[in-house]
From TrEMBL:
Any one biological process term the GO annotation gives: mitochondrial tRNA 3'-end processing
Designated name of the protein: ribonuclease Z
EC code(s) of this entry: 3.1.26.11
Compositionally biased spans, kind Basic and acidic residues: 171-181
Region (Disordered), start-end ranges: 144-185
Ranges where the tRNase Z endonuclease domain occurs: 11-64
Cofactor: Zn(2+)
Length: 795
């Protein structure tokens, strides 16, 4: 309390929108503290230029996709940026959630302190020289949830509150995988008998810090045991709100008053500074308030998560909330409300807001009130400019500016109520919420700031000229199949590209999603707008190539959103993935019902094209046949590829005569070329530029030239390159691999080639047109600066 006062503030990092949920950042000169870490947190940090240093703690209000889905990715980014230690606080379920990430979150240099709030108490859950944080946990009677660690079969009976079945009735997939794992030593077996201790042990190996024991330094038997399923998670749904109290600063010692009162320099002045009274030689008693100025009250704020009306009463009646108005010691300056419209309309909640007084600022975030203006303006600005070239291929992301102010004005919430957007609120000195920019204007500014090389006049008449040059051809099978690229970057999201995801639309049959990186659902919403629910309903298959985070971290959010679609009944969804991915998804479903009762898993190794006849069980064969019938496919097969973890490509061959191969992440792989022989389309990663071949091999990736070479070996007719590193230009240098579609040096044997962008929407039949755009795109991108590079996860 005696240190020099320093300013501090709180910033709205993200609010409720099509691709973000609320998150708030407290900043001191020497520390940062994040409250909630939803999907796209890393990307919003990049956009807001908040920096990645000095993070001390993350506080989660719920273990739910809208509050914590971005935590694994952001934690990896912090670790890769040099963070050595991090406290993470949240309600029960936090440890289970973190332990479930053990297959991909491993960061040996980061020491993670995972702390659950189990009971309400006045004692702080976190305290340092800057902040005192008190958790306000709220649960609702009857909200208990008990789910088994695995489903009883590949398809479970659907129910609103699944209770599941005993672990002894696991699916055949589960039993086959478990049977291959060796027995651990007796000490580890005993530890597993205590579920909480076992989760803590697992976490200690995921985030051990430099002095801890890494998973990779454990005994092989222990490693195999850690890879097994976590103990069943049984809990009550708990929601944490947080009271955050800043530092209190004692008033300044007044030397002149001390001298006037006859207090000499020395021990007596030191005592007064410490708050102690002193008695002078003449018997006078000098108290601290006689020589020390008035202390500044500690400023405080509330982060409130109230997800439904049944949480209102236990929240406002909690001891911590009741004490806020009666305790005048701390100055409540602002309250952040994560509350749906039904909560704000409830008179109990509205009356509580008004009871806090007219001087308190309230920041409201929910999907009914907040704007759906574009968040990732760099990518949107490029799409806007490219749409001048071809509005069919390059679509501007959807935005819908809700008139939240009108809706908010109809609510009786009192004064100083603000819609969350990007406000900064000063806590010392106290200031009102101020938004650095108006939503929508930043997009206009981003478009205006694009270099002259991307001026729309560059594209005038290009499309019409190219259409006139393309010779008429007989329609080919698959021409009407559409690709929508949702993420075309590698490892970490960037200014222009999100992480992996591509949607294949097969007319008359449905959609196949190829990988599902963090933020995929938001990308779907931005691309398809009001039609997104139909798109989600028609996703019949999701293929996850491997366990690295940039390829699967969006799947739980997408499954949850799909589960909410009740009418008409959603069809079963087939998920092809590795065993580790399946286990992660199933373990997460114990925390939040993401609709696994409508999911049919297929293990990628069991349908590998060289082995399927030997490894496929009857269950697998029956499931594959159902998938084939659903999508009109002649065959569905995987191909083992070469990466730093078990990884697979996918080969789809349709009864209509077209075929598609997707590489996932791989170095040049002959097995993939053989499996996809003669494919109509190859989608292949091209993470590195050609001069980075050695680095590509080290990291298990391919260069642009290597991807093109695999396409030739495969005899693929068309090639789309994707999965580009943010280290390199937004448009990779294709060299002689593609020109304008007419002058390729070996046009007879080379496929049509194009480069994927986020939101690229392309029919296979339009590849010839797209390839001819490349010279224009090379000019347009020649002056675009590279992404502000985040530390790579090296995945």
């Amino acid at each position: 309390m005696s240190r020099t006062p320093q300013p501090w503030m709180v910033t709205v990092v993200s609010s409720s929108s099509l691709d973000t949920d609320p998150s708030f950042l407290i900043t001191f000169a020497d520390a940062k503290y994040l409250f909630n870490c939803p999907t796209n947190s890393t990307r919003m940090m990049l956009k807001g230029k908040f920096g990645l240093s000095k993070f001390r703690a993350i506080f989660l209000s719920r273990i739910a996709t809208e509050c914590s889905a971005g935590f694994p990715g952001f934690t990896m980014t912090l670790a890769d940026s040099g963070t050595k230690e991090l406290e993470v606080h949240g309600p029960p379920g936090l440890s289970h959630f973190v332990a479930s990430t053990r297959f991909y979150l491993q960061r040996d240099n980061l020491k993670g302190h995972i702390k659950e709030t189990n009971t309400a108490t006045d004692n702080p859950v976190y305290k340092d020289e800057n902040l005192t944080v008190i958790a306000i946990p709220v649960t609702v009677d009857g909200s208990s949830l008990s789910v088994p660690s695995s489903p009883a079969s590949l398809k479970r009976k659907r129910s609103d509150s699944p209770e599941g079945t005993p672990a002894s009735k696991r699916s055949s997939i589960d039993n086959r995988a478990e049977a291959r794992r060796p027995s651990p030593n007796l000490e580890i077996k005993a530890l597993r008998n205590d579920p909480a201790a076992w989760r803590d042990f697992v976490i200690s190996r995921i985030l051990p810090g430099s002095q801890g024991t890494s998973l990779y330094r454990e005994k092989q038997a222990t490693i195999q045991e850690i890879k097994k399923r976590l103990p069943t998670w049984t809990h009550r749904r708990v929601v944490n709100s947080y009271l955050i109290i800043g530092p209190e600063f004692r008033g300044k010692f007044n030397v002149k008053l001390a001298e006037a009162l006859g207090v000499p320099p020395g021990p007596n002045r030191a005592k007064l500074t410490r708050g102690e009274s002193v008695t002078l030689s003449d018997g006078r008693v000098i108290t601290p308030d006689m020589v020390i100025g008035e202390s500044s009250r500690a400023a405080s704020l509330l982060v409130v998560d109230c997800p439904g009306t049944d949480y209102i009463e236990p929240f406002i009646q909690s001891k911590q909330i009741q004490n806020i108005r009666s305790n005048g010691q701390n100055q409540l300056h602002c309250v952040f409300h994560m509350a749906p419209l039904e909560v704000l309309q409830d008179t109990r909640y509205a009356d509580w807001i008004k009871s806090l007084g007219p001087e308190v600022h309230h920041i409201i975030s929910n999907h009914d009130i907040c704007s759906n203006a574009v968040n990732f303006v760099g990518s949107a600005a490029m799409q806007d400019r490219l749409s001048e070239l071809d509005k069919e291929l390059f679509r501007v992301p959807y935005s819908d500016k809700v008139d939240g102010a009108l809706l908010l004005s109809k609510l009786d919430l009192g004064p100083n109520v603000h819609i969350a957007r990007n406000q900064v609120i000063g806590m010392r000195p106290l200031t009102s919420p101020v938004a650095p920019y108006e939503e929508g204007l930043d997009l206009a500014e981003a478009i205006a700031s694009l270099p002259k090389a991307t001026d729309k006049t560059l594209f005038e008449g290009v499309r019409e000229k190219i259409l006139a040059e393309i010779p008429s051809t007989i329609p080919c099978p698959g021409d009407d199949v559409t690709l929508t690229f949702l993420g075309t970057g590698s490892a970490v999201p960037g200014k222009y590209r999100n992480v992996s995801g591509a949607l294949v639309t097969i007319p008359g049959h449905g959609n196949v999603l190829l990988d599902c990186g963090e933020g995929t659902l938001g990308q779907l919403r931005r691309h398809f707008g009001t039609d997104v629910n139909d798109v989600l309903r028609n996703i019949k298959c999701i293929f996850i190539s491997h366990i690295h985070a940039d390829h699967h971290m969006g799947i739980c959010q997408l499954l949850l959103e799909r589960r909410k679609l009740s009418s008409p009944k959603i069809p079963d969804l087939f998920v092809i993935c590795t065993w580790t991915t399946m286990v992660y998804i199933q373990e997460y479903s114990e925390i939040e019902d993401i609709g696994l009762d409508a999911v049919r898993f297929l293990l990628a190794p069991e349908i590998e094209y060289r082995k399927i006849s030997n490894t496929a069980t009857l269950d697998t064969v029956l499931t594959i046949n159902e998938l084939r019938a659903t999508l009109g496919l002649g065959s569905v097969q995987t191909a083992a590829v070469i990466h730093r973890t078990p990884a697979f490509g996918l080969v789809l061959r349709h009864k209509d005569g077209w075929s598609l191969t997707y590489s996932g992440d791989t170095t040049p792989c002959q097995n993939l070329a053989d499996a996809g022989k003669g494919s109509t389309l190859l989608i292949h990663e091209a993470t590195m530029s050609d001069e980075q071949e050695e680095m590509a091999e080290q990291k298990g990736h391919s260069t642009v030239g290597q991807a093109c070479e695999i396409a030739k070996r495969m005899e693929a007719k068309k090639l789309i390159l994707t999965h580009f590193s943010s280290r390199y230009p937004k448009l990779p240098v294709l060299g002689n691999n593609a020109r304008d579609g007419k002058t390729r040096s070996d046009a007879v044997t080379s496929p049509e080639v194009f480069v994927a962008f986020d939101f690229l929407h392309i029919r296979l039949g339009d590849m010839a047109r797209a390839e001819r755009y490349i010279p224009n795109l090379e000019v347009a991108f020649s002056e675009i600066q590279d992404d502000e590079e985040l530390p790579s996860h090296d995945d």
